[in-house]
């Protein structure tokens, strides 16, 4: 029996490893680079507000959560929630992870308050052109910052524990959920000498207890425990990004169809793209969910390129050579071009087939006056074609931004 107490310091680390933290968009924007840097600093919570319906139906204000989960993070969120009173604002995460204990503590807090949580980058208008230090000071000012949301966000490791605690969970198309196993760090301090075998035995036993605890947590949050089984299989030094199928099958976000608003992220180059992502089943007789997207860009002051990148699916056959794009009574033909390409940044392991057409700003401006546009894929052997109906929310602002940029684009 030991009479001198053993001084043990245990830290449960659950964060995206350095090798995986560069993941993100293939061409990160200025905004994206700044937001990615923010996702790795200590977590900050702040109020943000946008246009009507910018964060969902009848939702224009939310709580932004950026950075790594640390011991004080839960306390700071609790203080913010006490200031917001009875207002049930959604909370949107962008984080590379941190302490698992803090992630689950925040998750329980979200469940207690019956909150909605999602994975989005918040882009405050006041941070445009500002340094990272000035931007962070603005976020810590206590003001509700005019902002917009970007869907190309990440929620890794400990962040996933926080996310699944919410009553309603939103993982938009192109957002990423990264998982890996928990790392247990034991510092033996000034404890009496122990053999290496004794220390290894203790650490194995303690890690097994911790894993059992978090497996129960996943189960309590009504998420399929296969999620935690998968977490155990991924080495802590690596990371696995969940597919849309896994996100749905595990019960994190089970929606079969969802779409983002049109957006025009600043890539920091003369080129500007308008983008819209959506998740759907490629066919009624198929079970898997996949992410596809639309892209518009200006070719000149008169001409605009409109491209549809359709997820090829695990065994999805190529569609015909032409598709129809309709906005009200206006119709354009999209022609297939190029070869199948892989874009892991949009969806892990995904391949894409593309169709495109050259159109005009006038066509897009007319389309923006309607509530939706339709893409019709031809059916096989005379069968009725598949129609994809997509919202035009944000299209007017995106087309306006494209027009402005196209005036300064070199010929």
Estimated structural class: alpha+beta
Strand content is: 25-35%
Number of strand segments: 22
Order of strands, main sheet, comes to: 14-15-16-17-20-19-18-21-22
Which term fits the overall shape? globular
Quick structural overview:
The protein is of the alpha+beta class and 411 residues long.
Task: Report on this structure.
By secondary structure, the protein is α+β, with helices and mostly antiparallel strands. The chain is built from ten helices and 22 strands. The strands form four sheets. The chain has a nine-stranded antiparallel sheet. It has a seven-stranded mixed sheet with strand order 7-8-2-3-4-6-10, sandwiched between helices. Strands 5-1-12 form a three-stranded antiparallel sheet. Mean pLDDT is about 85; it is low at about 1-10 and about 20-30.
Write the layout of secondary structure elements.
Layout: E1 9-15, H1 30-38, E2 44-49, E3 61-66, H2 73-84, E4 91-94, E5 97-99, H3 100-112, E6 116-119, E7 121-124, H4 132-139, E8 145-150, E9 154-156, H5 158-164, E10 168-170, E11 176-179, E12 183-187, H6 196-220, H7 226-233, E13 240-241, H8 244-249, E14 258-259, E15 273-280, E16 290-298, E17 303-311, E18 322-327, E19 330-342, E20 351-360, H9 361-367, E21 372-377, E22 386-391, H10 395-408
Looking at this protein, list some descriptive labels.
disordered N terminus; 411 residues; alpha+beta; 22 strands; globular; single chain; 10 helices; 31% strand; nine-stranded antiparallel beta sheet; seven-stranded mixed beta sheet
């Amino acid at each position: 029996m030991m009479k001198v107490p053993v001084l043990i310091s245990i830290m449960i680390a659950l964060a995206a490893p350095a090798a995986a933290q560069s993941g993100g968009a293939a061409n990160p924007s200025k905004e994206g680079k700044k937001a990615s840097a923010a996702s790795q600093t200590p977590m900050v919570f702040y109020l943000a507000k946008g246009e009507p319906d910018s964060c969902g139906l009848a939702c224009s204000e939310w709580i932004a959560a950026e950075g790594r989960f640390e011991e004080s993070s839960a306390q700071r969120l609790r203080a913010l929630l006490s200031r917001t009173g009875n207002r049930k604002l959604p909370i949107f995460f962008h984080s590379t992870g941190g302490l698992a204990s803090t992630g689950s503590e925040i998750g329980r807090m979200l469940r207690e308050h019956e909150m909605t949580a999602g994975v989005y980058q918040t882009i405050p208008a006041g941070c445009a052109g500002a340094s990272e230090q000035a931007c962070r000071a603005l976020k810590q000012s206590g003001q509700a910052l005019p902002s917009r949301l970007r869907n190309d966000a990440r929620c890794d490791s400990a962040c996933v524990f926080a996310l699944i605690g919410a009553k309603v969970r939103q993982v938009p198309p192109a957002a990423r959920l990264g998982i890996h196993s928990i790392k247990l760090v034991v510092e033996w301090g000034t404890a009496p000498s122990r053999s290496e075998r004794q220390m290894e035995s203790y650490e194995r036993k303690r890690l097994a207890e911790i894993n059992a605890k978090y497996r129960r947590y996943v189960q309590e949050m009504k998420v399929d425990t296969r999620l935690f089984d998968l977490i155990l299989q991924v080495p802590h030094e690596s990371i696995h990004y969940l597919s849309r199928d896994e996100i749905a099958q595990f019960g994190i976000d089970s929606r079969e169809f969802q779409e983002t608003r049109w957006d025009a992220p600043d890539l920091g180059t003369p080129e500007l793209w308008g983008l819209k992502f959506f998740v759907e089943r490629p066919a009624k007789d198929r079970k898997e969910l996949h992410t596809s997207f639309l892209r518009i860009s200006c070719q000149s002051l008169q001409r605009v390129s409109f491209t549809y990148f359709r997820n090829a699916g695990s065994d999805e056959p190529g569609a015909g050579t032409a598709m129809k794009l309709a906005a009200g009574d206006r119709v354009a033909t999209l022609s297939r071009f190029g070869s199948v390409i892989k874009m892991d940044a949009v969806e892990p392991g995904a391949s894409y087939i593309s169709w495109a057409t050259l159109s005009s700003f006038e066509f897009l401006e007319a389309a923006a006056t309607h509530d939706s546009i339709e893409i019709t894929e031809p059916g096989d052997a005379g069968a009725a074609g598949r129609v994809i109906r997509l919202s035009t929310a944000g299209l007017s602002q995106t087309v306006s931004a494209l027009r402005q940029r196209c005036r300064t684009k070199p010929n």
